């Protein structure tokens, strides 16, 4: 029978927790900024269509905000239990970064959220708009600190090691580590796109049901402008992020590309599809384009990209996981760009609100941003393995779960944890979906 130790169970549990949690902050970040635009347009025009849209999306924002806070608490519990060894080793760095998030972002959001939710008719409009701006700013500040911590784990610097513990030496170097700017912008744009797809799908549903009101048209129009303008920017930021990763984490890039070895004198091909085989050290059934990998990753037709065989076996990421998660992320991104281009063409033809095939396309793209987001996180986190702090601390070294367990027991324990969370999440998104359809 397959042996499954508690270390793998702890990793699966944490992966599920993070994947479940990240859905809600992503929507919260995008919706907060969307609410700022809606209320700002109402203040400028006094058109009640903007106010009705604000009140509608405010309720959905509140639910997502609450779910994000509660699901995030579970991660802190796991840091203190399953991964207490990591906290003991690096807590002097990661702890203050999370504390800064609480002292700045969380207090900022909590201080103004009540007025934002319940103060519409109790405070002057300008003051209410200010509270909305502060909550939106709080979501972005929270993103800043979380990405600073995560990016430092990917590209650590600014510390020394004393008596088996990390001691911070340069906080500016820790916060503004080499990968931080790319990850911050990539994540923020991903959150905006996820929310845009969510809003656009809601509008498309109403149009398909025959609700062609001005409010629905504005929802669809704003979402499609976001897809048209921001999705291509995300592709550029992603390319810059990839170049940064190639410089600091070349093994991750090799695993993403499923690239095992370089041929003498040949540029690196781009592998479109295939089945990476860790045991045979090759990618089976590969479909590749010659030299395109070098062109994308080095902007040259002659330079070679590091291959997996250039690294010791114990330092290689698990290529099958990141190979496909990366392609899912890119595929969703291409579809979002295509959606934006289609919307621009239909807008030019004055058919944006009348094309049912496009409306179905927009409806089906509702979860695309979140799918891309989770796939991207799988890529970046699985690609960092076997390190929890890249090049410094291996994941297994700091897991405090050592008791062996067999596969059936592991499934039972994991199901006991995930089933309530899944039911909770399905109920929440089902309620949000019904709310969106009932407007």
UniProtKB/TrEMBL annotation:
The keyword Membrane applies. The keyword Cytoplasm does not apply. GO terms for biological process: aerobic electron transport chain. InterPro entries: Cyt-d_ubiquinol_oxidase_su_1. One of its GO terms (molecular function) is heme binding. Its main location: membrane. It is found in: Cell inner membrane; Cell membrane. GO terms for cellular component: cytochrome complex; plasma membrane. It is a multi-pass membrane protein. Its EC number is 1.10.3.-. Keywords: Cell membrane, Electron transport, Heme, Iron, Membrane, Metal-binding, Oxidoreductase, Transmembrane, Transmembrane helix, Transport. The chain crosses the membrane at residues 12-36, 56-77, 97-120, 127-148, 184-208, 220-237, 321-346, 358-378, 413-432. It comes from the Bacteria. Belongs to the cytochrome ubiquinol oxidase subunit 1 family. This is Cytochrome oxidase bd-II, subunit I. It comes from Klebsiella pneumoniae.
């Amino acid at each position: 029978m397959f042996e499954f130790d508690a270390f793998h169970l702890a990793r699966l549990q944490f992966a599920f927790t993070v994947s479940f949690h990240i859905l809600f902050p992503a929507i919260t970040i995008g919706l907060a900024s969307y609410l700022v635009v809606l209320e700002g347009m109402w203040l400028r025009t006094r058109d009640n269509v903007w106010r009705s849209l604000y009140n509608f999306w405010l309720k959905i924002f509140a639910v997502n905000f609450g779910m994000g806070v509660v699901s995030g608490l579970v991660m802190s519990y796991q840091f203190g239990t399953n991964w207490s060894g990591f906290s003991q080793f690096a807590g002097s760095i990661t702890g203050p970064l999370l504390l800064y998030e609480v002292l700045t972002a969380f207090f900022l959001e909590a201080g103004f959220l009540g007025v934002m939710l319940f103060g519409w008719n109790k405070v002057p409009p300008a003051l209410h708009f200010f509270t909305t701006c502060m909550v939106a700013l709080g979501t972005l500040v929270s993103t800043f600190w979380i990405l600073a911590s995560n990016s430092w784990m990917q590209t650590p610097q600014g510390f020394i090691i004393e008596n088996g513990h990390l001691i911070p030496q340069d906080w500016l170097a820790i916060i503004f580590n080499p990968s931080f700017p790319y990850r911050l912008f990539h994540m923020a744009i991903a959150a905006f796109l996820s929310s845009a797809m969510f809003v656009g799908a809601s509008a498309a549903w109403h149009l398909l049901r025959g609700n062609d009101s001005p409010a629905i048209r504005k929802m669809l129009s704003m979402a499609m402008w976001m897809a048209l303008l921001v999705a291509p920017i995300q592709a550029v930021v992603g390319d810059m992020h990839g170049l940064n990763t190639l410089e600091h984490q070349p093994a991750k890039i090799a695993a993403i590309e499923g690239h095992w070895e370089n041929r003498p004198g040949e540029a690196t091909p781009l592998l479109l599809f295939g089945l990476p085989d860790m045991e045979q050290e090759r990618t089976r059934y590969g479909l590749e384009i010659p030299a395109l990998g070098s062109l994308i990753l080095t902007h040259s037709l002659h330079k070679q990209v590091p291959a997996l065989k250039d690294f010791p076996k114990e330092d290689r990421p698990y290529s099958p996981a990141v190979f496909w998660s990366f392609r899912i992320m890119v595929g969703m991104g291409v579809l979002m760009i295509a959606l934006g281009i289609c919307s621009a063409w239909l807008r030019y033809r004055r058919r944006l609100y009348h094309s049912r095939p496009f409306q179905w396309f927009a409806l089906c793209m509702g979860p695309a941003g979140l799918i891309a987001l989770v796939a991207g996180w799988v890529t970046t986190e699985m690609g960092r393995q076997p390190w929890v702090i890249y090049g410094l601390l291996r994941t297994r070294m700091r897991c405090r779960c050592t008791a062996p367990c067999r596969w059936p027991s592991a499934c039972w324990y994991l199901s006991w944890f995930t089933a309530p969370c899944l039911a909770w999440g399905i109920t929440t998104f089902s309620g949000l979906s019904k709310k969106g359809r009932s407007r």
